[in-house]
Every structure is written in structure tokens, then in C-alpha cells.
Amino acid sequence: MIKLFFKTAIYHLRKDLFHSFLNIGGLSLGLVAFLYIATYTFHEISYDSFHSKADRIYRCVAHVKMGETAQNIPRSEIPLAAAAKNDFPEVEEAVRLYPLSEIITRYKEKKFVESEICYADAELFDVFDFKLLEGDHKTALLEPNSIILEKEVALKYFGDENPMGKSILLHSEKDPYVVTGILDKIPKNSNLQSNIYASFCTLQESKRMDSWGNFGNTYTYIVTKKGTNIEEFEVKFDASIRKYEDAMIQKEMGISLAEFESQGNLFIHKLQPLKDIHLNSTYAEELSTYGNKRFLFIFGITGIIILIIACFNFVNLTTSRASLRAKEIGVKKIIGSPRKSIIFQILIETFIQCLIALLLSILILLLILPFLNQFSGIIILPEYLLNPLTLITIIFIPLIITILAGSYPAFIITAFKPVDVLKRKFKEGNSKSLTRGGLVTLQFVVFIALVFCTLIIRRQINYLHSQNPGFEKENVLVVKNMGYLGNNRNSFKMELLKNPSVLSASYSSTLPSVDDNSGNIFCEQGSDKTHLMNRMQVDGDFQKTLGVQLKDGRFFSENVASEKDNAIINEAAARLLGWSDCTDKYIHDYNYEQDFKVVGIMKDFHMKSMRDETLPLVLKCSDASSFLSISVRSDNLPGMIKSLKLNWENFNKEAPFEYFFLDQSFNAQYKSEDRLVKVIGVFTLFAIMIACIGLLGLVSYAAIQKQKEIGIRKVNGAKISEILTMLNRDFVKWVVVAFVVAVPVSYYAMSKWLEGFAYRTSLSWWIFALAGLLALGIALLTVSFQSWKAATKNPVESLRYE
């Protein structure tokens, strides 16, 4: 019996290849889009869930507010880990991580620059389920100058040699690090992606066990014991840590923590669940690139919507053709076929179509995955399809669609009496049905909304790129790792300035778009009102090189020694302090415990992207910094870069020459928006194709249903234009209704999205109009082809047997 059902299903597929192609093709496109999005989404939400203690691991973070400036800090003080283990019975284990980047390592004659290196406590493997292929996880990081290498890193250093017990050198340290373990490859869905771990006790900073209040570069993770009420424990955790902060505040500022907070300040320690870090992080200076929850939400909604319209399309085409099988069903019932058997046959046929569409979509996705990855910037590997949630989705999709699409022909038509079916005394599904029109309308609501959103996102990105960030970012080349030059910094800079392609050069501790954790507490001289401000060290050529503007006062001179007690603030800091000028103004730096004379107020420039307002900033004068910004001519960049590299190698043989362009680095901050518009653009195209396939099938069906009416109208003198109007009228009406529904939905969605930007474009009426006209034009082009064929057909062919 089952074999017969399958044979019948294949027969019906082959009998009407055109509509079978439309049905399966439209559903396949929808499934390609949905599986791509679902695979990425399930991968993102699976981050760090592979750790056996993942539900009990928390990162210690801090929320700090000084005056009007608030900051979320993912780092913690060095002694916090020890305090957590000693003071709280709820804490099972704790580990500290101290990441570094761009570290030069050596083994014999081999030299590398490592960007994924991290110092860690010996408890690393008691907290996280990273696997050691060689070495003892209890002792591998216990002793100073111990190091663990990921297996591919070990192969890079030692080749076929056994790396255990071998020694390598890190940056400028003289004492070698002994390899005490080989680490297995870390899963892609881990936020901790360091491939080299060195013992934390090696760091000089690890000996500063009483440095409360110093949020250097240390990240602390704790494991709570089973059964711990985390809400209650978090309150207890913060309250207990406050005693250490109170002692620190009294030592540094001469006031109690309560007095400090009574001035409008805030100092709270919190616990962030490990599995929340990737998608729910609102912190700067993360250990790795974290996900974007808002992007993932939009991405996921888009995938669901694409699947829904593909299913609508499939249901529409399936049900519209169901009435054509009414006679077949009637005859089967008359000759004795039970209703259950007919229902099962129809569901089997629908399931086979869904299964073919699913298999075809997986094949298409695997073929186009490299191109989608390259275009969108979202990296999805084929093995991500093996994610358990993805596999469950793949299994259930054909079943769900079968139930939705097969229910009408299977349960409704088979319920009619055979005589009524043969005499056609039942309500046929056709293109005029309210349900079918509603489904097509919803398809075009999605289509118009996606087009509108794509246009708005692109317009916002263009708007951000076109805004003046307050500094000159074009033709500025930045050389990294200047610390390796030591006392040769100034000599190197003077040598560069001899190059005619170099206009100016300036040292700085950080730059716009470069992550930095140099925030510090400041106050006006003589005031006890503190403020949290960013801090930056620059030399006297910074203004000339980056083109920042002064509002009041002067900039630093080239004589660094004469400027060591001076500072420059930006407009945001001046507003915070209530200053209109810098005459006789001093600012106190709690880090240096010193008053600095403010000699200038700069106009605001953006250190971060223009999603947010400019933050308060204090500039100090120094030429001992990590970055050298070089303003260059653009006429011969390759030759100029080659010359700079030769100069670098003349002054430094250890570190490689590494550089980037400031405009590219600054624009890269909008990568998530660029990625979003590309992805939505791709799936808007999918939505258009699916909607067109659906319209093509429906207008074809409508033409078949009305072929005799068309023939009679033509015999009676109806023009082709009148026939076209009759066939296209309903489709145009559906698009117009879809436009009316899509406008407020799209407007609300994009208004909420734009609220995330401090600087944003406007929602112009012409964008709505363009999206609506595009939808109408595509709909008319799609239906007019089939309508024209029906309208120009010889009426004799339609009326021959009447």
C-alpha cells in the first residue's frame, strides 16, 4: 500500500512538472534562507554551553558611575578571586585571566607575533572544560614561567619535536617559559579563544594582591556550588566586597564609600552568567569579539518570516490545485476507497514534496555557503548544520509543512459526498478566496517591509560614514608596536619625517576606534565631586596630524618635558565640569595624585563610533606611546609603505612592521550594520523570488479556472487590455493592501532601531513610496506574463468542447 502511495505521488509530480517546480522551488528557496539563519542563530546561542559547569560559571563585573559618567567594566581587581574563594562558601572555584596581544615569541631562530595569548591561574581547567592532550591540568599552570600551547601552535614552533619541557621566550623577558601542556583545539563557540596560556603567577601584577579599585586587565570567573540562589548570593557578594572598596576609597580619597556614593557616584560588583556574555554583553574591552543580540534578533525574525512566506506560498499553490483533484477523489470514494486511505495518500504526496524541497535546500545551501559567508561577513561552517537544534529543526520542518499544506485537500475535499464532488457542488479554492488573498497580502507585507528596512539601514550607514567625526581620518597610517623601539622612538619619527610623502607624525597611547581601558577618576581642583573620564597620552604633533580643533587655549608644544604638568580636555569634559574656558583651571588626577593645569579645550571628536555621544576625555603629553599616526600623501602609498618598513627594520630587528589605516579602522566599527544590510538585502531577494513564484502559480491557476470565461469575453469583443485588467485586478489589490499594512509596521520597527544611534537619519516618505512601487512593479511583471498568454490564447481552444 505504501509503495502504491509513493508511486501515485511521483506520478502526480511528473504529471504537472511546471506547478511541481513552482511548489518545490519556492519552498526550497525559503528553506535555504531559513536554514542559513537558523544554523547561525543556534550556533550563536550555543556559546560556552559545552562547559559542564556552564550554568554555575559567572564573570565578576563592575558597574561604576562617577558624576555624570557611567561605565560597565567586564574586568575586576586582582585580589577579587582570592577574596571570593576565602569569603564565600558558595564559591566552589575561581580563576583569573590576563589577556595580551601582539606579543613577540621566540624559539631558537623562529620568531612569531602571537595575538591570542593569555595568563591564567592554575584553576583554569577546574572552571572550564578545555582539554589537555598532554600535561597535568592540576599543575600545568601552577609554577611561574609555565606555558600551555594549543596543538597547532606547538606544531608551528616545534614541528615533529616533542614540545613538552621545551622552552620559549615571550616578548622582552629574559627568563624562558617551559611548555607544561598541549591544549586541544578550543571549540568555535567559546568566548575564550586564546591558544597560548601562561601561568598567572609569573606576572608582576599578580603580586599586587591588595590593589582594590584597580581594574587593570584582569578578568575573574567564579563557579558557584550547586543549589546556590544566585540572586541572593549576588547581593551578598557585592555587600561583602564593599568593605575592601571602602578601605580603598578611604586610602585614596580620604572619604568613606558611603560618602563617595552620596556625591552621586556608584560602585557595584555584579555577576554575569557565562552563557550570557556572548549575546548580552554591554561591556567594552571584551576578551573576544562578542555577538550582537539585536542583530541576532532581527536576523532570526527575518528567517522565521522568510520560512512563513515560503510556507504560505506552498500552501497557496497546493490548495489552489486541490480542487483539480476533486473528481479523482470522488471516483476513488465511489469505487470503495476509505477516506483514511485517501487522506494518507494526499499527506504522503505533500510530505514527499516537502522532503524533496528540504534535501534540495540543504544541497543549495552547502553550494552557496562560501559565497554567502564572503558576502555577508557571517562565517557559517558546514559542520554547524550538525548542531542538535539545527538537526531537530531539519527533521520537523517537513512534518509541520505537510500538516499545514496537506490539511485542506486531505481533510476538506475528502469530506464532501462523492456525488457533490463529481457535480462540482462544493466551494472551490480559487484566487479570489479570502484566505488565499490574505496569504499573498502577507507575503507582500513582508516583501515591502524588508525593502524599506534595507533602504533605511543603508541610508543610516551612509549617514554615519558621511558625518565628520571631529578629526582627520583619511590618509592617516598608524604604525603599531612602538614600544619595541624603546629610546629610539624620536629618532624613528625624525627619520620618517624626511620622507616627502610624510606630512606629519604623532605618538599616542590610543586612537579613535582602538579599544582602550584608560578611564580614570578626575575632579576639579579643590572639589570633592569626582568624574570618570577617558585618558589619552599624545605628543605635541597630535593636533597637526589628526586635525583636531581647539575651542579655547592652546595645544601641547613639542617640548614634552615642559608640558608634563599640563592637560587638555575636550568639550564633553568641559561641560561636565561646568567650564566655558580653561583660564586658570586645574584638574586633579586620582591615579597620579596630582593636579594638572588645563591649557586647552578641544572640540569634541569621536573616539568610538557615532552610535554614541562623545565621552569626556583628558589628554596628557607624552612621546612614549604605543601608536604612531602618520599623515601621508596618497599619491604613492605602496612606495611610501615600503620605505617605512625599511626604516622600521633599521631601528628594530625584533618586532615585525605592522600598520593599519585609521579610516578603515574607524569605519570597521560599523561592521555589524554593514553586515545587517547585506544579510537583509540577500533575504529580501529571497522574499521577492518566493513571492514571484507564488504569484506565477496563482495567476496560472486563475487563468485555467477562467479560460472559458476569457474565451466567451473574447468572442464577444473584449480587448486584450480588458482581459489583462480582469486577471490582474486582484493581485494589484493585494499589493495595495500589503503596502497599507507594511508602512506602519516598517515605520515602527525602523524608528526603534534608529533609537540606538546618537546620530541618525530621518524616515522620509519617498522611501515608503519606493518600496511600494517596487513591490507593485515586480508583481505586475510577474503576473502579466501569464495573464498575457491567457488573454492572447485563441478562444476556439477554450470553447471547442462546449
What's the helix and strand layout?
Blueprint: H1 2-15, H2 17-45, E1 57-66, E2 69-73, H3 80-87, E3 91-100, E4 103-107, E5 110-114, E6 117-120, H4 124-127, E7 132-134, E8 146-150, H5 151-158, E9 167-170, E10 177-183, E11 196-199, E12 219-224, H6 230-253, H7 257-262, E13 266-273, H8 277-280, H9 293-322, H10 326-334, H11 339-376, H12 388-412, H13 418-422, H14 434-466, E14 476-479, H15 489-496, E15 502-508, E16 520-524, E17 530-538, H16 542-546, E18 550-553, E19 566-570, H17 571-577, E20 586-589, E21 594-602, E22 617-621, E23 627-632, H18 637-651, E24 659-661, H19 662-667, H20 671-705, H21 707-715, H22 720-754, H23 765-791, H24 795-799
Parallel strand pairs: 6-11, 8-10, 17-22, 19-21
Antiparallel strand pairs: 1-2, 1-12, 1-13, 3-6, 3-12, 4-5, 4-9, 7-10, 8-11, 9-10, 14-23, 14-24, 15-23, 16-17, 16-20, 18-21, 19-22, 20-21
Helix pairs in contact: 1-11, 2-9, 2-11, 2-12, 2-20, 9-12, 9-14, 9-20, 11-12, 14-20, 14-22, 14-23, 20-23, 22-23
Q: Would you write up a description of this structure?
A:
By secondary structure, the chain is α+β, with helices and mostly antiparallel strands. The chain is elongated and about 100 Å long. The strands form three sheets. Strands 1, 2, 3, 4, 5, 6, 7, 8, 9, 10, 11, 12 and 13 form a 13-stranded mixed sheet that branches. The chain is built from 24 helices and 24 strands. It comes from Draconibacterium halophilum. GO terms for molecular function: transmembrane transporter activity. Residues 302-414, 682-795 form the ABC3 transporter permease C-terminal domain.
